[in-house]
Known about the structure:
Elements: H1 2-10, H2 37-41, H3 52-69, H4 80-83, H5 86-96, H6 104-119, H7 126-131, H8 135-139, E1 147-148, E2 151-152
Helix pairs in contact: 1-5, 1-6
Amino acid sequence: MTLEAFADTVLPGEKRSPDDRAIAGVGTGPGAVEAGALTLLQEPATGITGGLEYLVLSLDNHAKTFAAESELELDTDVPAFVALPYEFRRKLVTKLTAPGHPEKDGWVALALFCNMSFDSAPHLKTADALGQGHPGLTAMGWTLDDTKNGFWQFPKYGYGRKLAELHPDTTPSGSPA
């Protein structure tokens, strides 16, 4: 629940149900959790799986301290970070990721992976993600029809114009010769 609440703080979405405590429900549409943040965070390739347990414990301890400093009483039925109202979650994440915070690197890495789950779905094959209606890729306009000659591409250039010609020695697979 703590990791879900963190992911939802970084990229908020709608509650999954009225009694959902991890997702604050301040976003419209799906957020990082629905996009697969927890699946991505548990991928060994991220290099952070070994530290997730520490980050969860640390985040809940930071939440307890932050709540005490803010004179906020927390519900003890859920982990401390989950019990924080959204605006306090956001303030705490901002504090943890601020320049100069001694643990900044860990929290920034965690936040980046939460964003990545939404905007690039690295935990899924692109065709599978689009076939499942991945919320982030869909929101950015990707479709299954964006392939040409086996390459994924948008129907229009990203900057509204072609930036460069393909090098004449480029192989059919797109690699430099």
